[in-house]
Design a protein that fits this description.
By secondary structure, the chain is of the alpha+beta class. The chain has helices at 3-16, 78-81, 88-100, 105-113, and strands at residues 31-37, 40-46, 53-61, 64-72. The chain has one domain (3-113).
Length: 114
């Protein structure tokens, strides 16, 4: 593990502080880097106490880290709970998207903002 990875993991854990599910403090070992492309880091943070998991995107440049929690898997969003169940067509749509996705999250999120 390089020092950059250690610093990013430490920053993510310090920003999130505690599990939203059980309120247990996160430890450095709870954060794991999944992917890194340039300044964009994607991490998984899993609570060692209750096993709840969150995915975090961190953009790290010379000015430090900007962190955005992408999706928490420990509980559904209130809007998602009212949605229809996932269908086979939904799965196929995601498969087609991922088949052509180049992994550039920064460009993807930039396109969505405009």
């Amino acid at each position: 593990m390089d020092s950059n990875e250690f610093d990013v993991r430490r920053t993510v854990v310090s920003v999130l502080e505690q599990c939203s599910n059980c309120k247990q403090q996160y430890s450095l070992e709870d954060a794991r880097v999944i992917e890194r492309q340039g300044e964009l880091w994607v991490l998984s943070v899993r609570c060692s106490h209750c096993d709840a998991q969150a995915y975090v995107a961190a953009v790290v440049d010379g000015d430090g880290a900007e962190i955005d929690e992408m999706r928490r898997t420990d509980e559904p969003d209130s809007e998602d709970a009212a949605e229809e169940p996932v269908t086979v067509d939904d799965v196929l749509d995601v498969h087609e998207f991922l088949d052509s996705f180049d992994g550039d999250f920064a460009a993807l999120f930039h396109r969505r903002r405009h």
